[in-house]
Amino acid sequence: MSAPEKTVFELIVERAIPADIVFENDRVIAFRDIAPQAPVHLLVVPKSSEYRNVTELAAGDPALLAEVVAIAQQLADEYASGEYRLVFNTGSSVGQTVFHVHAHLLGGHLPEGSLA
Ligand code: 5GP
Predict the structure, then answer these.
(1) Nearest atom (ligand 1) to Cα of 41
(2) How far apart are CA 30 and CA 13, in angstroms?
(3) Motif Histidine triad motif residues (predicted)?
């Protein structure tokens, strides 16, 4: 049986493709989204490719999910005003394209009242 195809985020973790990395430790990496949807748009990504979405991460490693949130706050303090929106797309019908869990950290001035 052949190994499952690697996601683009696994390739970034392995340095097989470049990314503008803003944070890294042994469990989490964060980098700028290639197609930013906000003045600050970072992706906060557990390095493990074991979890396809936030539901799987929450069930499998809740401490790692908590770490992702703590790192998001740290990055928002550093790159935005400390205030931010965190989005986990879960499923292709709502726009998930990379099936390796990741948080979109959106900051800067976002339209008031809009969730899009
Ligand atoms: P999703 O739609 O799965 O929630 O989010 C995937 C995100 O990954 C998208 O916002 C997309 O712009 C970003 N993305 C896809 N390929 C690359 C890449 O090669 N490099 C970076 N930095 N971001 C990527």
Answers:
(1) 10
(2) 10
(3) 100-104
